[in-house]
Design goal:
Blueprint lengths: L5 H15 L1 E2 L26 E2 L8 E7 L5 E7 L18 E7 L2 H17 L5 H10 L6 E7 L2 H13 L6 E5 L7 E3 L12 H6 L1 H15 L6 H6 L10 H21 L6 E3 L1
Parallel strand pairs: 8-9
Antiparallel strand pairs: 1-2, 3-4, 5-6, 6-7
Length: about 270
């Protein structure tokens, strides 16, 4: 069962039926229920898909959703008007265009350049600007990188060919991305808490649990409540709705999460929050 999405699934099904002009078969039905008089009225089960022909008015349908908790929703869906065919503007000269290529190794970079060059020599109808846009925004970027810059297709293809063959060319730039990226940890503020937060990690991670207990010991001198009881949602534990409880609890959880990440080899260069 799709739970909260059950109603929208019916809407999607009906929109597709309107789009394709077909009323779909009712699934998982062998025999109609005998508790309904199917001979009366105009309601019937569709044992097979049937055409939904165009008439002088838009197609319309009702979609109902009835939930066991009392939900009763009904949506009337109407066929969208036929959209006017868009006018394709004349192609404007792109000017100088960059084509970005990358790979995990030098060999992978050259192979990618060769595949791209061969593809574009065969598909001459594709715009060099569109190709450049896709290469720059829709491809995974790896460490070894190159960019070919030229004002026409021939110049760009020549640059790809030079890259594939491992030689230099005008408008071809290569490099390796820096590997000195640093990690920062962001500690959230009040409002991110919930009863039972971190309880799973207390049981599953000795590193996390040890630091939580260290924090609990440090806090015990200043509070009349137990940090561990608060996190586990124990009976009688102090409420996370209290400002004097939630702020120290969040601090302890974040410090312990930071220690857990450090145990995995993630060393933060900065902490904010």
């Amino acid at each position: 069962h799709t739970q909260a999405a059950a109603g929208v699934a019916g809407v999607i099904k009906m929109v597709l039926a309107m789009r394709h002009g077909v009323l779909p078969q009712t699934l998982h039905i062998d025999e109609p229920s005998t508790h309904v008089d199917w001979s009366a009225g105009a309601v019937e089960l569709l044992t097979e898909a049937v055409p939904w022909p165009e008439v002088e008015r838009p197609r319309r349908a009702g979609v109902s959703s009835f939930g066991v908790s009392g939900t009763n929703a009904h949506v009337v869906v109407e066929q969208a008007p036929v959209a006017a065919e868009a006018t394709v503007p004349a192609e404007v000269p792109a000017g100088v265009v960059p084509w970005v290529v990358s790979g995990r190794t030098d060999a992978a970079l050259r192979a990618q350049a060769e595949r791209l060059r061969a593809h574009l020599e065969e598909h001459t109808e594709e715009s060099i600007a569109d190709i450049g846009f896709s290469l720059a925004t829709a491809r995974t970027v790896f460490e070894r990188r190159a960019v070919v810059v030229a004002g026409d297709r021939d110049g760009l293809l020549d640059g790809l060919g030079a890259l594939a063959e491992g030689r230099g060319a005008a408008g071809l730039i290569q490099g390796v991305a820096g590997t000195d990226a640093r990690v920062a940890l962001v500690f959230p503020g009040q409002g991110s808490q919930w009863v039972g937060m971190a309880a799973g990690l207390l049981d599953a991670s000795p590193v996390f649990a040890e630091r939580i207990h260290e924090c609990a010991t440090a806090l015990s001198a200043y509070t009349d409540w137990s940090l561990v009881d608060v996190l586990r949602g124990a009976d009688g534990a102090a409420s996370l709705e209290r400002v004097d409880v939630v702020q120290p609890a969040l601090f302890a959880v974040m410090v312990s999460l930071a220690e857990l990440w450090r145990s995995y080899g993630v060393e933060p260069a900065a902490v904010i929050g």
